[in-house]
Amino acid sequence: MDDAHAQGAQGAPLNRGALADQDFLSATGISKLEVVDSTGSTNADLLRSASVEPASWPDLSVLTAEYQTAARGRLDRRWEAPPLSSISVSLVLRPANAEGRPLPTQSYSWLSLLAALALREMLLETAGIPAELKWPNDVLVRGRKIAGILAQLGPMVDGLAPPVILGTGLNVTLSSVELPVPTATSVALEQPRTIDRTLLLKSYLSQFTVLYRSFCNADGDPSAGLAGGPSLHKRVEAVMVTLGKPVRAQLPGDHEIIGHASRLDEYGSLLVVDGDGREHVVTAGDVVHLRPWTPPGQGGEGGYA
After folding, report:
1. Is the model's pTM score more than 0.85?
2. For labeling, which of 55, 141, 270, 300 is most exposed (least CB within 10 Å)?
Protein backbone atom coordinates (compact mmCIF):
# COMPACT_ATOMS: atom_id res chain seq x y z
CA MET A 1 0.00 0.00 0.00
CA ASP A 2 1.48 3.36 -0.97
CA ASP A 3 1.37 6.63 0.96
CA ALA A 4 -1.77 7.86 -0.77
CA HIS A 5 -3.64 4.73 0.23
CA ALA A 6 -2.19 4.90 3.74
CA GLN A 7 -3.45 8.43 4.25
CA GLY A 8 -6.79 7.61 2.68
CA ALA A 9 -7.23 4.72 5.10
CA GLN A 10 -7.21 6.95 8.15
CA GLY A 11 -10.37 8.12 9.83
CA ALA A 12 -12.03 4.79 10.64
CA PRO A 13 -12.63 4.65 14.38
CA LEU A 14 -12.40 1.47 16.41
CA ASN A 15 -15.57 -0.62 16.41
CA ARG A 16 -16.52 -0.36 20.07
CA GLY A 17 -19.34 -2.84 19.72
CA ALA A 18 -16.99 -5.51 18.37
CA LEU A 19 -14.52 -4.85 21.18
CA ALA A 20 -17.30 -5.14 23.78
CA ASP A 21 -18.57 -8.42 22.35
CA GLN A 22 -19.07 -10.83 25.26
CA ASP A 23 -17.92 -13.86 23.28
CA PHE A 24 -14.61 -12.11 22.56
CA LEU A 25 -14.16 -10.95 26.14
CA SER A 26 -14.97 -14.33 27.67
CA ALA A 27 -12.75 -16.18 25.17
CA THR A 28 -9.77 -13.97 26.01
CA GLY A 29 -10.45 -13.62 29.73
CA ILE A 30 -10.38 -9.84 29.43
CA SER A 31 -12.12 -8.50 32.53
CA LYS A 32 -12.67 -4.92 31.38
CA LEU A 33 -12.13 -3.03 28.13
CA GLU A 34 -12.53 0.72 27.77
CA VAL A 35 -12.08 2.86 24.64
CA VAL A 36 -11.47 6.60 24.93
CA ASP A 37 -11.27 9.17 22.15
CA SER A 38 -8.21 10.96 23.50
CA THR A 39 -5.90 10.89 26.49
CA GLY A 40 -2.41 11.86 27.42
CA SER A 41 -1.14 8.32 27.89
CA THR A 42 -3.00 5.06 28.40
CA ASN A 43 -0.13 3.75 30.52
CA ALA A 44 -0.19 6.82 32.77
CA ASP A 45 -3.97 6.56 33.09
CA LEU A 46 -3.80 2.92 34.18
CA LEU A 47 -0.91 3.51 36.58
CA ARG A 48 -3.06 6.12 38.28
CA SER A 49 -6.34 4.17 38.15
CA ALA A 50 -4.78 0.91 39.35
CA SER A 51 -3.40 2.81 42.34
CA VAL A 52 -6.56 4.71 43.26
CA GLU A 53 -9.12 2.00 42.45
CA PRO A 54 -7.27 -1.34 42.36
CA ALA A 55 -10.47 -3.38 42.70
CA SER A 56 -11.92 -1.67 39.61
CA TRP A 57 -8.95 -2.64 37.45
CA PRO A 58 -8.38 -6.38 37.85
CA ASP A 59 -6.00 -8.57 35.89
CA LEU A 60 -6.40 -8.20 32.09
CA SER A 61 -8.15 -4.85 32.22
CA VAL A 62 -7.63 -3.01 28.93
CA LEU A 63 -7.61 0.68 28.01
CA THR A 64 -7.20 1.81 24.41
CA ALA A 65 -7.24 5.31 22.95
CA GLU A 66 -7.90 6.65 19.47
CA TYR A 67 -5.34 9.37 20.11
CA GLN A 68 -2.59 9.94 22.68
CA THR A 69 -1.30 13.45 23.26
CA ALA A 70 1.59 12.65 25.62
CA ALA A 71 2.62 9.09 24.86
CA ARG A 72 5.94 7.97 26.25
CA GLY A 73 8.21 5.13 25.33
CA ARG A 74 11.13 3.59 27.14
CA LEU A 75 13.39 6.05 29.03
CA ASP A 76 10.56 8.60 28.79
CA ARG A 77 11.06 9.13 25.06
CA ARG A 78 8.09 10.95 23.56
CA TRP A 79 6.25 9.84 20.45
CA GLU A 80 3.06 10.95 18.76
CA ALA A 81 0.87 9.76 15.90
CA PRO A 82 -2.15 11.30 14.16
CA PRO A 83 -5.60 10.37 15.55
CA LEU A 84 -7.08 7.06 14.32
CA SER A 85 -3.75 5.99 12.81
CA SER A 86 -2.38 3.63 15.43
CA ILE A 87 -3.19 1.05 18.05
CA SER A 88 -2.46 2.53 21.46
CA VAL A 89 -3.41 0.03 24.13
CA SER A 90 -2.44 -0.67 27.72
CA LEU A 91 -3.26 -3.58 30.00
CA VAL A 92 -3.30 -4.03 33.75
CA LEU A 93 -1.57 -7.30 34.58
CA ARG A 94 -1.71 -8.91 38.01
CA PRO A 95 0.14 -12.12 37.18
CA ALA A 96 -0.92 -15.16 39.19
CA ASN A 97 -1.08 -18.89 38.51
CA ALA A 98 -4.23 -21.01 38.31
CA GLU A 99 -4.33 -21.30 42.11
CA GLY A 100 -4.17 -17.52 42.49
CA ARG A 101 -0.57 -17.44 43.71
CA PRO A 102 1.21 -14.30 42.46
CA LEU A 103 4.13 -14.85 40.11
CA PRO A 104 7.62 -14.03 41.39
CA THR A 105 8.44 -10.46 40.42
CA GLN A 106 11.66 -11.55 38.67
CA SER A 107 9.44 -13.07 35.97
CA TYR A 108 7.93 -9.64 35.21
CA SER A 109 10.86 -8.75 32.96
CA TRP A 110 9.53 -11.29 30.44
CA LEU A 111 6.11 -9.66 30.05
CA SER A 112 7.19 -7.03 27.51
CA LEU A 113 8.93 -9.76 25.48
CA LEU A 114 5.77 -11.87 25.68
CA ALA A 115 3.76 -8.91 24.37
CA ALA A 116 6.23 -8.36 21.53
CA LEU A 117 5.94 -12.03 20.61
CA ALA A 118 2.13 -11.81 20.59
CA LEU A 119 2.30 -8.73 18.38
CA ARG A 120 4.63 -10.50 15.97
CA GLU A 121 2.22 -13.45 15.75
CA MET A 122 -0.69 -11.10 15.10
CA LEU A 123 1.15 -9.26 12.34
CA LEU A 124 2.04 -12.53 10.65
CA GLU A 125 -1.33 -14.28 10.97
CA THR A 126 -3.76 -11.38 10.61
CA ALA A 127 -1.92 -8.79 8.51
CA GLY A 128 0.35 -11.19 6.62
CA ILE A 129 3.46 -9.21 7.55
CA PRO A 130 6.71 -10.91 8.63
CA ALA A 131 8.09 -9.34 11.79
CA GLU A 132 11.03 -9.79 14.14
CA LEU A 133 11.87 -8.67 17.66
CA LYS A 134 14.64 -6.25 18.56
CA TRP A 135 15.80 -6.44 22.14
CA PRO A 136 14.56 -5.14 24.48
CA ASN A 137 11.11 -3.96 23.39
CA ASP A 138 10.69 -3.24 19.67
CA VAL A 139 8.96 -5.07 16.84
CA LEU A 140 10.54 -4.65 13.41
CA VAL A 141 9.35 -5.32 9.86
CA ARG A 142 12.14 -5.58 7.30
CA GLY A 143 14.45 -3.77 9.70
CA ARG A 144 12.09 -0.89 10.44
CA LYS A 145 10.31 -0.29 13.73
CA ILE A 146 6.56 -0.85 13.54
CA ALA A 147 5.77 -1.10 17.26
CA GLY A 148 7.16 -0.57 20.71
CA ILE A 149 6.27 -2.06 24.08
CA LEU A 150 6.55 -0.36 27.48
CA ALA A 151 6.09 -2.22 30.78
CA GLN A 152 5.86 -0.21 33.99
CA LEU A 153 5.54 -1.48 37.54
CA GLY A 154 2.66 -0.05 39.52
CA PRO A 155 2.58 0.48 43.29
CA MET A 156 1.64 -2.10 45.89
CA VAL A 157 -1.81 -1.21 47.24
CA ASP A 158 -3.79 -2.93 50.00
CA GLY A 159 -1.18 -5.65 50.29
CA LEU A 160 -1.75 -6.74 46.69
CA ALA A 161 1.22 -7.62 44.48
CA PRO A 162 2.20 -4.62 42.37
CA PRO A 163 0.52 -4.63 38.96
CA VAL A 164 2.37 -4.37 35.67
CA ILE A 165 1.02 -1.80 33.22
CA LEU A 166 1.89 -3.01 29.75
CA GLY A 167 1.54 -0.55 26.88
CA THR A 168 1.78 -1.22 23.16
CA GLY A 169 1.96 1.29 20.33
CA LEU A 170 1.55 -0.04 16.78
CA ASN A 171 1.78 2.14 13.66
CA VAL A 172 -1.15 1.14 11.45
CA THR A 173 -2.08 3.66 8.75
CA LEU A 174 0.73 6.21 8.98
CA SER A 175 2.18 7.32 5.67
CA SER A 176 5.94 7.67 5.27
CA VAL A 177 5.81 11.42 5.92
CA GLU A 178 3.87 10.85 9.15
CA LEU A 179 6.32 8.35 10.61
CA PRO A 180 8.12 9.60 13.74
CA VAL A 181 11.56 8.69 12.36
CA PRO A 182 12.83 7.55 8.93
CA THR A 183 13.67 4.11 10.35
CA ALA A 184 10.02 3.40 11.24
CA THR A 185 7.23 1.83 9.21
CA SER A 186 3.51 1.10 9.50
CA VAL A 187 1.16 -1.77 8.71
CA ALA A 188 -0.24 0.14 5.72
CA LEU A 189 3.21 0.56 4.18
CA GLU A 190 4.02 -3.18 4.26
CA GLN A 191 1.48 -4.60 1.76
CA PRO A 192 -0.84 -5.94 4.48
CA ARG A 193 -3.90 -8.14 4.20
CA THR A 194 -5.81 -5.68 6.35
CA ILE A 195 -5.46 -2.31 8.06
CA ASP A 196 -8.65 -2.75 10.12
CA ARG A 197 -7.50 -1.52 13.53
CA THR A 198 -10.34 -3.28 15.35
CA LEU A 199 -9.44 -6.61 13.77
CA LEU A 200 -5.74 -6.08 14.49
CA LEU A 201 -6.39 -5.09 18.11
CA LYS A 202 -8.69 -8.06 18.78
CA SER A 203 -6.16 -10.41 17.22
CA TYR A 204 -3.32 -8.98 19.30
CA LEU A 205 -5.29 -9.27 22.53
CA SER A 206 -6.27 -12.84 21.65
CA GLN A 207 -2.65 -13.81 20.96
CA PHE A 208 -1.44 -12.08 24.09
CA THR A 209 -3.96 -13.57 26.50
CA VAL A 210 -3.25 -17.15 25.39
CA LEU A 211 0.49 -16.71 25.92
CA TYR A 212 0.01 -14.75 29.14
CA ARG A 213 -2.28 -17.30 30.76
CA SER A 214 0.07 -20.12 29.82
CA PHE A 215 3.06 -18.19 31.21
CA CYS A 216 1.17 -17.50 34.45
CA ASN A 217 0.18 -21.14 34.84
CA ALA A 218 3.87 -22.07 34.45
CA ASP A 219 4.56 -19.79 37.45
CA GLY A 220 6.40 -17.36 35.20
CA ASP A 221 9.05 -19.88 34.22
CA PRO A 222 10.42 -18.77 30.81
CA SER A 223 11.93 -22.23 30.21
CA ALA A 224 8.60 -24.07 30.59
CA GLY A 225 6.62 -25.18 27.56
CA LEU A 226 4.12 -22.51 26.60
CA ALA A 227 0.64 -22.90 25.09
CA GLY A 228 1.33 -26.39 23.80
CA GLY A 229 4.69 -25.53 22.23
CA PRO A 230 8.23 -24.30 22.94
CA SER A 231 9.07 -22.17 25.96
CA LEU A 232 8.79 -18.40 25.97
CA HIS A 233 12.59 -18.21 26.16
CA LYS A 234 13.01 -20.33 23.01
CA ARG A 235 10.20 -18.60 21.11
CA VAL A 236 11.63 -15.14 21.78
CA GLU A 237 15.21 -16.10 20.91
CA ALA A 238 14.06 -17.74 17.66
CA VAL A 239 12.61 -14.46 16.31
CA MET A 240 15.02 -11.94 17.85
CA VAL A 241 17.05 -10.24 15.15
CA THR A 242 19.48 -8.86 17.74
CA LEU A 243 21.04 -12.22 18.54
CA GLY A 244 24.10 -13.39 16.66
CA LYS A 245 25.00 -9.84 15.62
CA PRO A 246 27.72 -7.41 16.64
CA VAL A 247 26.13 -4.71 18.78
CA ARG A 248 27.04 -1.54 20.62
CA ALA A 249 25.20 -1.12 23.94
CA GLN A 250 25.22 2.44 25.19
CA LEU A 251 24.82 2.58 28.97
CA PRO A 252 24.28 5.49 31.38
CA GLY A 253 27.29 7.65 32.13
CA ASP A 254 28.76 7.34 28.62
CA HIS A 255 29.71 3.72 29.20
CA GLU A 256 29.38 1.28 26.33
CA ILE A 257 29.84 -2.38 25.57
CA ILE A 258 30.79 -3.54 22.09
CA GLY A 259 30.54 -7.21 21.36
CA HIS A 260 28.54 -10.14 20.05
CA ALA A 261 24.92 -10.48 21.22
CA SER A 262 24.87 -14.17 22.11
CA ARG A 263 21.67 -15.04 23.97
CA LEU A 264 19.12 -14.07 26.60
CA ASP A 265 19.53 -15.16 30.19
CA GLU A 266 16.76 -16.51 32.45
CA TYR A 267 15.58 -12.95 33.21
CA GLY A 268 15.37 -11.84 29.58
CA SER A 269 18.56 -9.78 29.83
CA LEU A 270 20.91 -9.67 26.83
CA LEU A 271 24.29 -11.36 27.11
CA VAL A 272 27.02 -9.63 25.10
CA VAL A 273 30.47 -11.21 24.64
CA ASP A 274 33.19 -8.61 24.12
CA GLY A 275 36.41 -8.92 22.12
CA ASP A 276 38.25 -10.44 25.09
CA GLY A 277 35.65 -13.18 25.48
CA ARG A 278 34.08 -11.68 28.60
CA GLU A 279 30.32 -12.00 28.93
CA HIS A 280 28.36 -8.91 29.97
CA VAL A 281 24.77 -8.86 31.18
CA VAL A 282 22.80 -5.94 29.72
CA THR A 283 19.40 -5.34 31.28
CA ALA A 284 16.54 -3.50 29.63
CA GLY A 285 16.50 -0.96 32.45
CA ASP A 286 20.17 -0.09 31.98
CA VAL A 287 20.60 0.19 28.24
CA VAL A 288 20.11 3.63 26.68
CA HIS A 289 20.58 2.49 23.07
CA LEU A 290 21.36 -0.83 21.47
CA ARG A 291 22.45 -0.63 17.87
CA PRO A 292 24.12 -2.83 15.27
CA TRP A 293 27.86 -2.18 15.19
CA THR A 294 30.19 -2.14 12.22
CA PRO A 295 33.93 -2.48 12.97
CA PRO A 296 36.10 0.33 11.58
CA GLY A 297 37.11 -0.28 7.98
CA GLN A 298 34.27 -2.71 7.29
CA GLY A 299 31.70 -0.32 5.91
CA GLY A 300 30.00 2.66 7.45
CA GLU A 301 32.12 4.87 9.67
CA GLY A 302 33.04 2.40 12.35
CA GLY A 303 30.05 3.48 14.42
CA TYR A 304 26.58 2.16 14.93
CA ALA A 305 23.95 1.86 12.25
Report:
1. yes
2. 55
